Amino acid sequence: MIPASFEYHRPQSLNEAVALLAELGEEARPLGGGHSLIPMMKLRLATPAHLVDLAAIGALKGIAVEGGDIVIGAMTTQHEIAGSDLLAAQIPILRETALLIADPQVRYVGTIGGNVANGDPGNDMPAVMLCLGATYHLVGKGGERRVPAREFYRGAYVTALNPGEILTAVRIPAPPAGHGAAYEKLKRKIGDYATAAAAVLLTLRGGNVASCSIGLTNVADTPLWAEAAANILVGSSLDTATVKRAVAAAEAITSPAADTRGPVQYRTKMAGVMLARSLARARQRARNA
Amino acid sequence: MPSTKTRVSMTVNGDAVEALVEPRRLLVHLLRDDLNLTGVHVGCDTTHCGACTVDLDGKSIKSCTMFAVQASGAEVRTIEGMAAADGALHALQEGFREMHGLQCGFCTPGMILRAYRLLQENKSPTEAEIRFGISGNLCRCTGYQNIVKAIQYAAAKLNGVPFQEAAE
User: Fold this and answer.
1) Domain boundaries, given as residue ranges, for chain A
2) What is the pLDDT at residue A289?
3) Domain coordinates of chain B in residue numbers?
4) pTM for this one?
5) Which CATH architecture group holds B91-159?
6) B4 pLDDT higher than 90
7) How much is the pLDDT for B168?
8) What superfamily would CATH give domain A181-288?
9) Residue B2 pLDDT grade (very low, low, confident, very high; cuts 50, 70, 90)
10) B6-81 has which fold?
11) Are the C-beta atoms of residues A77 and A61 closer than 8 Å to each other?
12) Distance from CA of B39 to the nearest CA of A (A)
């Protein structure tokens, strides 16, 4: 499969990239790892006239601590996220999630920025970002603005990103010491999108849930932040009855598509099952922390 | 709209190569059609099967999902660059032969290139680590048993220890 023709640009700086995107207009697309965009181009579902490759821009790479936040450059690959000692120590759910994405070859090239920016409801990192309360750095001609992940997703492939803007980094508040987190993903095979998946971040105080946040993957047009479900759990000991109520609240906000992964009812129930499993594992980890 | 051709240069199997390509030219087509490295296979052409896997700057990548222009400046290795100059097989090639790690052989170049990077990163992988490590490569013949053994054989040889086949 051969993509349509396009012009290739390889800017050396972020300013240059932003200027190029502004000049080239709607016919241009930024290129990260390309592992969403290139398959779409091969199928001619995407036919950009210009690709602005971000690979040469060093400022978009790397993982840094800034105050109480961890900032991950958009061009950081899933492989680098999975291999980061800093992230393994501070936000281990990111390694767990990265290793559930696609396969080794894709993780060497696919980037965190592309994963969260392209708005594919099947991508795994967006729900984790909702769960963690991340903020995205968006840079356009007018400068930088920061948008909470929880306000970023509008619909399938529709986000708060304006034409000409580049998502340059993901900023995550470091979860408190002693937190427990987990990402549970049901998939048919390696490389598949989730039938349903759930991210959980919680803290315990005296055996009860002191704080809780939940994100759900691929059970709606956008990743879901299951705020009501999480609120039900706060103050509880994660007893069976309360977990059941929270699972029902999470299932209630889903609206999955019926596809080859299963009918609507099945995928809804699987979102609940993934949530229950994530809660159990996050609790265990918080206890062991 | 015909696009401007771009000059790309890279090192492939130790040789400096240059080509004038359309930006839309995929790396796999540059390797196969321009450089005649037909050991790089096109299987699914959709980033799933791993038959087109090559080593690029210390990463295993699917060359059907990268434009040649993206690889400009890179160091690339394909199956044609695995054996020594005198023809002696690489430990992985030997392992695949000794352990019957292939039947039709279509997936083998991608498997070997992926296993090459896996063993660079993890000199003594467990069976589970090998299976996870080659999870981006599909084989429709072997059921993977002998591919895993072939990689274990190569790991042992590269580590200078005798290979012991696990009991079935």
Assistant:
1) 7-52, 61-173, 181-288
2) 86
3) 6-81, 91-159
4) 0.96
5) Orthogonal Bundle (1.10)
6) no
7) 63
8) CO dehydrogenase flavoprotein, C-terminal domain (3.30.390.50)
9) low
10) Ubiquitin-like (UB roll) (3.10.20)
11) no
12) 18
Give the model's pLDDT for residue B121: 98
Measured between CA atoms, the residue of chain A closest to residue B1 is A5
Measure B134 CA to nearest chain A CA, in Å: 7
| B18-43: average pLDDT | 98
Give Cβ neighbours of residue A214 (< 8 Å, ≥ 6 apart): A131, A198, A199, A200, A225, A226, A227, A229, A230, A250, A275, A278
B59 touches chain A (CB under 8 A): yes
Residues of A in contact with B132 (CB under 8 A): 104
Domain A61-173 CATH (choose: 3.40.1350.10, 3.80.10.10, 3.30.465.10, 1.10.240.10) = 3.30.465.10
For residue A50, what pLDDT band results from cuts at 50, 70 and 90?
very high
Q: Is this prediction's ipTM beyond 0.90?
A: yes
Cβ separation A39–B114 shorter than 8 A: no
